[in-house]
User: What shape does this take?
Amino acid sequence: MSAPGTPVPGTRLPVSHAPSEASPFTGLVPGLRRAVGRGLAKVTGSAAGPYQSAILRIGFSLVWLLFLLREWPHRAELYGPDGSWSFALARRLIADNHAFTLLMWSDSRAWFETVYAAAIVAAALLLVGWRTRTAALLFMVGVLSLQNRSIFVGDGGDNVIHLMAVYLVFTRCGQVWSLDRRRAVREATAGRSGGADPVGIALWTVLGTALVAASLVGRLTTGWALIFWACWGGQAVWWAVRRYAPGEPRTVLDIVADVVHNGAMLVIAAEVCLIYSTAGWYKIQGGRWQDGTAPYYPLHLDDFTPWPALSHTLAGHAVLIMLIAYGTVVVQVAFPFALFNRRVKNVLLAVLILEHVSIAVLLGLPFFSLAMIAADAVFLPTGFLRWAGEQVVRPLRPRREPPGAAIDPQRSPDATEQAAAP
Assistant: This one.
């Protein structure tokens, strides 16, 4: 027998280890999983930036509406049969680039007047937010039809409107500040949410009839026909689910709509950053911007000086012109990077808006400036937008109670709207 404490042959002795330090990657996987879960919940749980998407809707529809109304006396020269860009030239170009435009369906003056008037109506409907999904699609059709007919008409703002008209179709831009929102609150308050909606059914039927007619006569290409038929069928599915299956199917459709909306808002934000970054970097490569004299020259062009005395006075200050040139380049290049800091972003955003206002006044480009300001609105803080909206609505809001009367907070209009909010 072996003495006590003597190891038995063939047995493994326990090895003592010094306390090891915890790995820095120990909590990485759980933390990453939680972050991904929060991100997915945010993307699928709600439509991001309802006030930002609403101001985009209002801004771009207003700019396009004002432009069409201002150019009403000259509409035939810009987009119609009296323009220098003839119907034959437009047809040859569209045969190559396959752009969409209703104005290529006929060269008659009556058809042109109908399309132009329809574009005005669509812009007005989108502005007030009436049947926003349909109005956004019709707004896009109006913008593409006119701009693709005469591609040389515009001042740069038309390109921004062209892009944003497509992106707005994928957003839920009628959640606030719209007639759709007002109708939804009224129906929820009255307990009639998900009703028959005869107006919507009639609108859907009329547009479906027009789509059938256009398809039968072969006016739509395969790609555009698929897009329009998908939108038309999607509206029917949305109404049917809202009407007859308000439970889980409605939740699934809401999730899909939120994901599409959030993706479109991300694309819009990226587009604005791309516009400013490319403009800034191209300016850096120009010799006139490098020596700080670039703003001097447009201030002496007759086509860009609506106020000659003001423009010439500004152009006479060399130091100020140099500061404007260098400041413009710095702000445009730095803006995409400033998005990582809220305060810096807001300061540069205010500078950019002021710059566009100056361009509208000094260079006589109001619609370009308004289009860019509308695009910048995607980055405006929600608190500021809500405050601005309240300032606009407050004078128009009727007084529901006589002065000095007590209002039950549970029955106030704001409380009703919050209770009925989806």
Remarks:
- The first helix runs from residue 28 to 45.
- DSSP finds 18 helices and no strands in the chain.
- Residues 170 and 260 are 6 Å apart (CA to CA).
- The two ends are 83 Å apart (CA to CA).
